[in-house]
Amino acid sequence: MIDTGYYETFNRPNVALVDVSADPIVAIRPGGLETESGLHELDVLVFATGFDAMTGSLLRMNISGRDGLALADAWAAGPVNYLGLAVPGFPNLFTVTGPGSPSVLANMVIAIEQHIDWIADCVAWLDAQGAGTIEARQEAASDWVSHVNGVAERTIYPSCNSWYLGANVPGKPRVFMPLLGYPQYKRRCHEVAAAGYDGFATS
Description:
The protein is of the alpha+beta class. The chain has helices spanning 6-10, 56-59, 71-74, 108-129, 138-152, 182-194; strands at 25-29, 32-35, 38-41, 134-136, 200-202.
C-alpha cells in the first residue's frame, strides 16, 4: 500500500470490511449498498470495477506481427514475453514494464526509466550494427516465462485470486505476470545487452 494512515483508517469504528465473494452484492440503493446480509449505509460509493492489468492496454491496441499474427492470438494462453520487453513474432515491438518484467512489483518510475534506457541503448546498438529489426527468439521467451513462473512459485502470490494472475478478468488465462526481484532483473537485462542482445534475432 503506497499510503500513510492505512491501518488507522481501516480500524476506525465506522469502517467495515465486507467480503462480497461470501456476501454478494444484491443492489445499489439510495442509502448505500445492499448485500445478501443486508444494507451497508454509505455516504459515497466509488465504482472501482477493476482493470485488465499487464496485458489489457496492449491487447486493446490490436497489434499485429509477422504474417498478420494478432498479439491477442499470440497471448491466447497467457503472455509470452522475453525480459518483459519483447515478443517473439513482433519485430521492433518493445513493451515497457510489460508482463515478465518486475513492473508493478517495483518502483514504477524507476522500472520505466530502466526500460526506456535499455530500449534506447538497444536502438543505438542496432543503428551501429546496420540492423533494421530486432525480435525476441521463441526459445528465449519460453525460457523467460518459465523463469518468471519458477520465481513466483517460491511465494504465495500464485495461490491468491489477484489481478497479478488476471483473476479479476473473466476468461483471462491465469498466469502470474510480473517478475519478482528488481535488482536481479536489472542485472539480467545488462547481461543480455552486453552479450550482443542474447536471446534476440536481428536482421
